[in-house]
Amino acid sequence: MLRRLVLAATVILLQKYPFAQLSIMIYTSIFLLAYQLHTNPYEFKRFTFFEILNETTILLLTILLIPVSWTKDGDQRHFLGILLIGVMMVAVGLNVVNFVVSLL
Q1: Model confidence pLDDT, tens digit, residues 30-56
Q2: What is the 3-state secondary structure (H, E, C) of 31-95?
Q3: Which has the closest alpha carbon to 27: 50, 59, 2, 65?
Q4: Distance CA 53, CA 94 (A)
Q5: Backbone phi, then psi, for 17, in 5-degree steps?
Q6: What CA–CA distance (Å, rounded) separates 56 from 32?
Q7: Cβ-Cβ contacts under 8 Å for 91 (sequence gap 6 or more)
Q8: Is the dihedral of CA 29, 31, 37, 41 positive or negative?
Q9: What is the DSSP letter of 43?
Q10: Which pLDDT value is given to residue 5?
Q11: Closest to 84 in 3D by CA, of 69, 102, 94, 103
């Protein structure tokens, strides 16, 4: 909930400052990741693992957006785009496997 509120405020208030938007998203992800690592909010380790995995994925994707937005080279942008998609697909795949295992 906090992330959504910060993201909405950032998008509305900092429209002309994309670097500030990315910085705020990165710091928000780092804060939430540190909180989850410190508190272990779930009683099952599997839930904690996947929450940390998802938070790390969001942080990594946000960091990868920086070179994507700055580079002008088409081949490099294509490679970074494929990398973004690959990271996301690994995270989604692991979450799907987790979901299927939890149904059994």
Answers
A1: 998 898 888 887 888 888 889 899 999
A2: HHHHHHHHHCCCCCHHHHHHHHHHHHHHHHHHHHHHHHHHCCCHHHHHHHHHHHHHHHHHHHHHH
A3: 59
A4: 9
A5: -130, 75
A6: 10
A7: 53, 54, 57
A8: negative
A9: S
A10: 87
A11: 69
Encoded amino acid at 8, one letter: A
Tokens of residue 38, six digits = 């410190």
Is residue 15 scored above 80 in pLDDT? Answer: yes
**Structure tokens of 91?**
């995270």
Residues in the chain: 104
Coil, helix or strand at residue 1: coil
State the Cα–Cα distance between residues 17 and 62, nearest whole angstrom.
15
Q: Which two tokens stand for residue 32?
A: 């939430």
Structure tokens belonging to residue 90? 């690994």
Segment 85-98 shows an average pLDDT of 94
Tokens representing residue 50 in the block: 């996947």
Q: Which two tokens stand for residue 12?
A: 């509305």
Helix and strand totals (H; E) in the chain: 4, 0
